[in-house]
Records
---
Amino acid sequence: MLRRTSRLLLSLVMTLSFAWAGAVFTAGPAQADGCYTWSGTLSQGSSGAAVTQLQIRVAGHAGNGAVLGIDGEYGPATAAAVKRFQSAYGLAADGVAGPNTFNKIYALQDDDCTPIHFTYAELNNCNSDWSGGAVSAATAKSNALRTMWKLEAMRHAMGDQPLRVTSGFRSVACNNAVGGASSSRHLYGDAADIGAGPHTLCALAQNARNHGFNGILGPGYPGHNDHAHVDHRSGRFWSAPSCGI
């Protein structure tokens, strides 16, 4: 909790500093980070692991109905997502990932690479090792990390109010215990159910359309009147009839 509070205070100080400096501000080098540190500026045409790491963190800013591919290639879609990320956090929106962009990402993540408002534990209340699902434990955990970054973007867009995750990864045994579908995306670690809280279920389902989710289910869809469901299935399927989706 102390580390997360320090991150948020650092982010606030950075934002106020940028606002004061205005057009004359010259970005310094990005700071080192306990999770991942970028070593140089990235822009269209860049490729490799550094781009992949960036894409994971900006995929929640893909835009309405869009899903950003995590492929290590910095193309137009990645540049557009970076622009939206920059705009969302008050940075110059040029689509180029440099020190200001990386420093903002560092302020948003903990040393285990999770975004500051979500944890692995929230995305897995089934077991401690991510085993027993439809994919390897490592893949399930990696999928959950990608989900968390999309939820972080959605949380910020909805006024930085908490999102209450009620279910994430499930092993086959956990899925059977709650009566989940045999093909549930929860078995892959790439799904999250969100309960009502500061936002209505319809507001959650509607806003999810802007944050890179192919699967969105909510009120009006069988079995989803008490939560909004988001996932990373390969093709789009949105259904929350009570919410106009």
---
Amino acid sequence: MRAVVQRVDGARVEVAGETVGEIVGEGLCVLVGVTHEDTPQKAAQLARKLWSVRILQGEKSCSDTAAPLLVISQFTLYGDARKGRRPTWNAAAPGPVAEPLVDEVVAQLRTLGAHVETGSFGADMKVSLTNDGPFTVLVEV
């Protein structure tokens, strides 16, 4: 699994003009990509990392401050544009494999005590955020 994690001061995701997920104030906006070899165990590992990674102000984590997370599925994180002019998506897991694993990341975060908002899997989403820093890291498990 791969996640692009952005420290934000507010973020939201809209589908068809309606807000489906939003966090206010300091938190993390997390774009999650799934590949073919990923498992529920990797989803749990990613959730623990997201909950505990110390990238908020003052080197704090979401677990330290109860900061919310906005988790959005994004298959394009496994796009490969090394050849030609059009990316390939071969490394991205198909929806029936990826969706339950993204849901598992969210469920595991909630089990840890996190407030989690989400996008809508497979939808055309509009994501807006204020990147705080800017601060963006790539997390792979």
---
Amino acid sequence: MEARLDIFAHPVASQVVKNIAAAGKPVAESSLPASTSELVVLRASQINGCGFCVDMHTKNATKAGETQQRLHLVAAWREATVFTDAERAALELAEEGTRIADSAGGVPDEVWANVTAHFDEEQAGALLSIVALINAFNRLNVIAQRPAGDYEPGQFG
């Protein structure tokens, strides 16, 4: 598969990608656990069918020490016993925030209440932000048909 557009070589698209990546810096610097962030971006990428991001975040999570068992079970997190209640709340937010068009009312209050029961205000804001950012990255990659499989951990900094 070849990409429709090389978003890193395109003058406009590459600048947009750089700006989205820069917008993620406060999330990385927040107190949100990196493992939770990786699970969230992986789940959103699975839902959106973004092979490039699934490849990237699976490899990044593995390099950061995440287990293969947990990574394999992200898509079935509701039935899996390997996630904490906080991780479940984050994964539910990732799903609801990614499938926002499927719900006329947006993300249900119960989902947000569950997030705030497990995460402080800074972490909840980081979760909200990372869900929005990964959805933007997913859309860029899916529309451009960016191929998956060649990502190397740390490739982008």
---
Amino acid sequence: MITKEQREKLRGWFAGRLPDDLFEELTELTVDREEITVIGRIPEPRLAEDAPDAEREAALESRVQEFRERTREDRMAVAREAEHRFGRKVSWGVECGGRRALFTHVAAPVMTRLRQPERQVLDTLIAGGVARSRSDALAWCVRLVQRHTDDWLAELRDSLEHVQRVRAQGPDAETDQAPPADDEE
């Protein structure tokens, strides 16, 4: 968990470090303990107003692929520098014509111990064809919770940032002043 200020500094670093012509706009930058994900908007392909959906979809897919290949070296140079500086892997994605595509991203293993009722939920998702494995089923559950609790999770993140600020002001915080001298001489 990083603070709002740290997130703003990270976003500023990327905004300043990315080549000016890489994205039309840096739309999203997310970070966790393992990964920084950078998503930017790229221009849509020029098509006729009445272009069929299949043509539009194929054009968007090719634009994303063209961008990925053309910018690979620039993105890798920024990623190497950021990984060294921030100690996290960097993943990339784009938005184009209302479509979002992630190129590569970290799939971090998460170890947990589940009791039988929780395992039964995962096994039911597998039996129902929603997931191929318990790992897939658990990821599906996390995405479902994330989708339905965004406001609650945002409030929780804000609360955690407040706790970090209060801790930083505690007695172990670094100060520029020396502690007051004792009057017992």
